[in-house]
C-alpha cells in the first residue's frame, strides 16, 4: 500500500512540475498591406510577449548567432528585429524545410512552376479544356481570389477557422484537382525543363513533384516546430507563417499535442 501511495505521489509531482508551453501560430502576409504591416505584427508581439519567434525561412538566412544576415522588406523580419531590440532575451529561430530553394531547383519544381501554370491558363482561356477540367480550373481561380482577398484585411481576418477552411479547400484544389487536370492533358507531358542536376523533367512531372513537396514541406516544418517546443518547455513560442500554410501546421501540431506538452492559442485570445 505504501509503495502504491509513493508511485501516486511521484506521478502527481511530475504532473505538477511539467512545464506547459504556449504555441501561437500566426498566419501572415509577407509584404506590407493597407491593414497589415510590420507595425501591426509588432503590436501583436508586444501583447503576447513571446520567448521564441520561429520564422518560415531556413538557417541560411541567419548568422551563427541567429541574427538576420540581410535587410528585408517582409513584415515578419522587420517586426521581429524591432521586438528583439526591445526584448534582447527573446530568441529568433528558423523552422523551414532546410535547403528549400535548392531542393526545388534540383527537382525541377522551381523551373516548371510558372510555365506550367501559364500553359494551363492559356488552355483554359482558349476553351481547350473539357467542361470538367474547366470547372476545376474556374473553382481554383475563385478560391484563390477569395483567399487572397483576406490579405487586405486585419490579421484576425486571416487567422481564424473560416479562413483556414477556405485555405485548406484552395490548397486541395491546387495540389489534387489541378494535378488531375495536368496529368490528363498531353500538352504537359510534351514540354520539359532542365533541373540543376541536368535532369530533363516534363511540366507534368514537375507539377507532381510540386504537389508532393507541399506535404513534405509542411510536415517537415511542423516537426521542426515540435522539436523547438520539446526543447524549450514552459516557453511562449510564436510561429510566423504565410497564412496559406496555417491550417496545415495547426492540423499537424494538434496531432503532436498527444506526445508533447503544449497548448495551441490564437493571438487574440
Automatic annotation (TrEMBL):
SUPFAM superfamilies: EreA/ChaN-like. Keywords: Signal. Residues 1-18 form the signal peptide. It comes from the Bacteria. This is TraB/GumN family protein. It comes from Flavobacterium rivuli WB 3.3-2 = DSM 21788.
